[in-house]
Amino acid sequence: MPDALRAQVDALLEANRAARAELLTAVDALTAEQRREAWFGAWSLHEVIAHIAAWQDGFAIALERMLAGERPVIPGFDAGGDDGDATDRFNAAAAERAAGQSWESLLSALRAARERHEAAVRRIPGTLPADRFIEGRTARRLANAGEHDREHIDAILEWRRSKGYRS
Fold first, then answer.
1. For 73, phi and psi rounded to 5 degrees?
2. By C-alpha distance, which of 119, 107, 2 is closest to 59?
3. CA distance readout (Å), 148 to 33, 53, 62
4. Span 60-82, mean pLDDT?
5. Cβ of 126: how many Cβ atoms within 10 Å?
């Protein structure tokens, strides 16, 4: 079973890498002004990338905690009271923290989040039982960062097309 779990983890990591490559291609070759143009509600590409980096880093931390036998908690995500606004508060905080960052530092944070996340995912085989990595379980959802990237890729590409920004 460990070999089967390792194969699943390797396949998911490859899917995550492919999604990240598509995301980076989607944001490539834009000017500083274009990256700060609001188009995703009140958000620009800058805030979208900050949001993706914050969630991936949070997924990594939650996985690290899970692998240590602790409850998988994403720092800064407080669902207390279950008022339905926890995600919005987390997203707003991520965007606010990134407001003054340069694009280069934002991409560096995105890369660091991916590296930390990938390291945590690689530790799943040999640490967690295979049944904790099946579809729908927390470990699998936290490991699948590529799904979150893909949630934004089509919107970014559509925005670029609508503005005539070549990719």
1. -115, 140
2. 119
3. 25, 10, 16
4. 90
5. 10
Q: How far is CA 130 from the centre of its chain?
A: 23
Structural tokens at position 56: 């991936």
CA angle 72, 78, 79 (to 5 degrees): 90
Q: For residue 62, give the nearest of 51, 77, 48, 52 by alpha carbon.
A: 77
Identify the DSSP state of 130.
Answer: G
Q: What does residue 104 show for φ and ψ, rounded to 5 degrees?
A: -65, -40
Report whether pLDDT(167) > 80. no
Q: Evaluate if pTM is beyond 0.85.
A: yes
CA 9-88-91 angle, 5° bins: 60
3-state secondary structure of 20: helix
Residue with tokens 């890498």: 17
Per-residue pLDDT tens over the stretch 89-100? 999 999 999 999
Q: Name the β-bridge partners of 43.
A: 40
**Confidence category of residue 104, pLDDT binned at 50, 70, 90:** very high
Whether 55 has a pLDDT exceeding 80, the answer reads: yes
Q: What angle do CA 104, 147, 132 make, to 5 degrees?
A: 120
Which position has the token pair 């492919």?
18
